Amino acid sequence: MPGPAGEPATSLYAASMGTDHGHTHRLDLEDPTLREWDATVLHASPNNGIVLDRSAFYPGGGGQPPDHGTLLWGGVQTRIVGARGGDEIYLIPAEGDPLPLAGTAVRGAIEDDRRTTLMRTHSGLHLLSGVVFRDFGALVTGGNMEPGEARMDFNLPEIPGDFKARVEEACNAEVVADRRIDVKVLPRDEAFAIPDIIRTATNLVPEHLTEVRIVDIVGLDTQADGGTHVASTSQIGRMQVVKVENKGKGFRRVRIRLAQ
Ligand SMILES: [Zn+2]
């Protein structure tokens, strides 16, 4: 999904689309259902955070916030309150929690409720962008999410009076249809040969990427994407369109909420 409104929609593509990031192997992209795993600390400092050899913490990007969780080591717990990508994926420890030294074997765990709700929310935004493109021809210009709540911005000069109700009905029809959500990695040329692959208003996939990660809601929406998703649209659950705001000059902001 694209970045927050008002900023260029770069954040989605800033996420690494391979399964390695710096020195960390990304288990979150390999298996978004994984919640516990074993790893070794490669680096830890109070300023930068903790780098693991293998990590399932989503580092944030594409409007999806980072995961929370814990690292357990020798009876000690380090709470992880965030993560960020850069040259490495850095896990942010809770203030005052002990830091494992480089070389320490740790058991990582992701806070399941938060991550699972974010996966549903993120997938719900795909569904929303797919429906609004299919039914109204509008491109996405931005978006952002919290667990269970999200907004997405569209370039949509004219909307019918029943737009909000129609979007909500169409989204829930797609939830009921239980479409499969597939993820695959394709060579760049092959990926860009898929029609409408970049559902944002501009194509911001960096030049240097030779492979592109594709997220396909089968039969509805195919996008280049670096986030985590549920396996089928029924897992998103019922979607409510809370509000449609007119932000001027064809700029419409659609706010959604998921059923608990
Ligand atoms: Zn996505």
Features:
5 helices, 20% helix, 36% strand, binds zinc ion, 6-stranded antiparallel sheet, 4-stranded antiparallel sheet, alpha+beta, elongated, 260 residues
Q: Largest beta sheet: what is the strand line-up?
A: 4-3-9-6-7-8
Q: Helix and strand string, N-terminal first?
A: HEEHEEEEEEEHEEHEHEEEE
- How confident is the prediction overall: mean pLDDT? 89
- According to DSSP, the number of beta strands is 16
How much of the residues is beta strand, in percent?
A: 35-45%
In helices, the fraction of residues equals 10-25%
Number of helices: 5
Gyration radius (Cα, Å) is 19 Å
End-to-end CA span? 22 Å
Question: How would you characterize the largest beta sheet?
Answer: 6 strands, antiparallel
Low-confidence stretches: 1-16
- Global structural class: alpha+beta
Shape: elongated
The ligands bound in this entry are:
zinc ion
Explain what you see:
The chain is α+β, with helices and mostly antiparallel strands. 20% of the residues lie in helices and 36% in strands. It is built from 5 helices and 16 strands. It has helices at 11-14, 27-30, 112-136, 163-176, 188-192, and strands at residues 20-21, 24-26, 36-45, 49-52, 54-55, 69-73, 76-84, 90-93, 105-110, 139-146, 149-155, 181-187, 211-217, 221-224, 239-246, 251-258. The strands form 4 sheets. It has a 6-stranded antiparallel β-sheet, with no helix packed on it. It has a 4-stranded antiparallel β-sheet with strand order 10-11-16-15, covered by helices on one side. The protein has a 3-stranded mixed β-sheet with strand order 1-2-5. Helix 3 (112-136) packs across helix 4. The relative contact order is 0.18. The structure holds zinc ion (ZN). Zinc ion binds next to helix 3.
